[in-house]
Each structure stands twice: as structure tokens, then as C-alpha cells.
Amino acid sequence: MTKDLKFDPATIRELAQILRESDLTEIELIDNDMRVKLVRQVTVAAMAMPVAAHAAPAPAAAPAAPAVTATPPAARTAEIDADHPGAVSSPMVGVAYLSPEPTSAPFVTVGSKVTQGQTLLLIEAMKTYNQIKAPRAGTVTRILVESGTPVEFGEPLMIVE
Asked: What is the pTM of this model?
């Protein structure tokens, strides 16, 4: 039967070697009416990723800062409009953190004077911590999120007046 094959066994062995070396799972060759398809089974084991000691705060370990006043998420949208002139809105979906580390002081508290470009909080999105900076100078009059809570795009985070 191998005499009639247009793809000889050496070619098929070469293709199998390419599969192994390149981490591909499938190769298919078509020549006129002949088709050869090689498929490799891949077993993926789920593993827990270790957390680095210097990582930014984890949601469960983030302490509540006593000077921070936060509004419950359900009341947040009803109580404050995202169009408020002093609202600082989330530029992305992620998890908000008010301090750089769980044991450190928050970046700002209610009543803090801030300058334009000063870091107000962090939003973790896809394992990256993004600094959210003050769009203008002013005073933080309200903090609308708690540390470690998920935030949506466009959601008001703070009021800087």
C-alpha cells in the first residue's frame, strides 16, 4: 500500500518531527486528490501560579484605610453621576487598589490636596498595575471605590474638586 502513496514515509516522519519541534498540534498537506493530516495529542495540566513576594496588593489582603469613605457599589451609580465635573473615571476594567501595597498608606484620602498627574490609585488589569493619575489639581472630596473591588470602564472612582 505504501507504493501508491504520493507522500512517502520519510516525508511523514519529517512532518511528525516538525510537529514535535515546533509545538504545533496539527499539520495537513493536500496534493491533488491526496490528503495527509498529522495530529498530535497535547495534555495541558492546570497549575497554580506562585505569587511573587513583591507583587502589588491582593484583593483579600488589602486593608481598609480608616480615613477613606466608600459608598457601597449599588448606591455608587445612583448617588454620583459619571458626568460630574470632578469625577475621575476608570479608563479600563480591572480591580482598584487605593494603596501600592496592602500594608502601606493609601495614595490619597478624602481631603487630600492633589496636583495634576499625581497618582490617585492603581487599577490591576491582566496582571498589570496601571496608575490612575489626577486629571487636574484640587482636593479629593469623595472616594467612590474600596480597595480590592472590581471596577468597570467609565465608572466614577473619585471626585477631585
From this structure: 0.51
Amino acid at 99: S
Question: CA-CA distance, 45 to 76, in Å (whole number)?
Answer: 41
User: Facing residues of 97 across strands?
Assistant: 122
pLDDT digits (tens, 9 = 90+) for 95-109: 999 999 889 999 999
Does 3.30.43.10 match the CATH number of domain 64-160?
no
Sequence spans of domains, the chain: 2-39, 64-160
Farthest-apart Cα atoms in the chain, separation: 85
Q: In what order do the strands lie in the sheet with 113-114?
A: 87-89, 156-160, 138-143, 113-114
Grid coordinates in use for 112?
487630600
Half-sphere exposure of 144 (CA within 13 A, CB side): 25
